[in-house]
Specification:
Low-confidence stretches: none
Mean pLDDT: 91
CATH class of the largest domain: Alpha Beta
Number of helices: 3
Shape: elongated
Number of strands: 13
Order of helices and strands: EEHEEEEEHEEEEEEH
Structural class: alpha+beta
CATH topology of the largest domain: tt1808, chain A
Distance between the termini: 68 Å
Length: 242
């Protein structure tokens, strides 16, 4: 499949088996925690289908002007893959192996700057690749230290435009039917700013450990109610059934 424009020829081809993928480590320990938290709540809410994937630091590919380009966003959401899981173990090529990501995210670190790169020459910058090559509808840049969330939306001109959050400081991601916003608290022994999802009613999507704690509290409350009822029955001479 070939898409041509004035300056670009884009082909959606499988990554060559002998292509050497970058083996760069993540910038810091926070990035994987932020990514796993985003996926966790989607899984708990039952939003992720067997065909959807949320890759983290995983190569997304395209061939641009006869050169293979691979970028690995800190987090992405791909609604549906058409290839088998084995076929996309090393990398993923949109259009050929499934949907284009509907959202990609980059988490700023001490070596930030590359997230804003519009460099068009090889190898192209991240911003340029997501906007002009992949044409991802939503691009999020998040600073976990300051809690600043920037969300860019692909407009009718094919360029990213900074979006203004709503009155709750959240962004509606129409492709997922969820709000995205910043939440402060503790998870995995890390206290600070996190990205979280809210449904259209404004209810936060729980993480797994939060749901487990909620269920534990419900069970404990039910036990307490049963014990009080049993005590009341015994007080009037009625032995409650087991």
């Amino acid at each position: 499949m070939v898409v041509t424009s004035t300056d670009l020829e884009i082909r959606w081809e499988k990554l060559p088996d002998d292509f050497i993928l970058p083996d760069d480590p993540v910038d810091n320990i926070t990035q994987p925690l932020l990514a796993s938290a985003l996926t966790d709540s989607l899984q708990v809410a039952g939003i992720l289908s067997p065909q959807s994937i949320t890759p983290t630091n995983y190569g997304i590919c395209a061939t641009v002007n006869d050169k293979v380009v691979v970028k690995a966003p800190d987090w992405a959401y791909i609604p549906e893959i058409t290839a088998s899981r084995d076929e996309i173990e090393r990398s993923y090529t949109p259009q050929l192996q499934g949907d284009i990501p509907v959202i990609v995210m980059e988490f700023l670190s001490e070596t930030d700057g590359a997230e804003y790169s519009i460099k068009p020459t090889y190898p192209p910058g991240k911003w340029f690749f997501y906007e002009q090559v992949l044409k991802v509808p939503n691009y999020v840049i998040f600073n976990p230290i300051t809690g600043i969330l920037e969300r860019y939306r692909l407009d009718d001109s094919g360029q990213y435009k900074l979006q203004t959050p709503d009155e709750n400081q959240q962004h509606w991601i129409s492709e997922i039917n969820l709000f995205l916003g910043v939440w402060q608290g503790t998870r995995n022994n890390r206290s600070g700013n996190w990205l979280r999802w809210w449904d259209e009613r404004g209810t936060v999507l729980l993480w797994g450990f939060e749901l487990a704690e909620q269920e534990r509290q419900r069970a404990e409350l039910a036990t307490q109610r049963a014990e009080r009822l049993a005590a009341q029955l015994r007080a009037v001479g009625i032995e409650p059934e087991e």
